[in-house]
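Subject: sequence -> structure tokens, single chain

Hey, anyone have a minute? Need the predicted structure for the following. Not urgent.
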Amino acid sequence: MSFLLFQQAAGFLLLASLSGGSEAAEPPPAQALAEWEVQGRADGLARPDTQCQDFLQAMGRKPAGLEYVGCRQDDASYIKPMEAHYRVAGARAEQVEAYLHAMFGMPMLRYTCCGWSNGAPYTWREGPDTVRYQIGMGVESLPHARDEWQRIEAFNVTVEVLRQSP
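Reply:
Had a minute. Here:
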């Protein structure tokens, strides 16, 4: 008798999974791409089929001395962010900072409280209907002057894109 209940329960679970009763289900790829074409492109969102990757390399704008560490993708978040992580040795940080400032307009780093940072989140977009990138650079450190950055092991750089509007 318990085997019969097990079979009924399994059948119910299978039926529930096939009925698509979850509101959090992803739209089919073609539908997601169509929705992106209608509004996502204008909002600066990455295409829904974008892979987590070295975004600076993909743009052809990765500065020398910047090491790609990896990419983290959060599909559980409503905005579906992807964040590429990089490192640069303290001795090369000033050149990478200057490059990111010249190429993307990222503010120069300032020392505040506990480390060097470019301040509030900074976004860059090449033009309308292109992806909006959030670019950041910084490190927690002792208050070393700029000319002592070689004493800091490494600075972190992040480049983030969103795949869904907030």
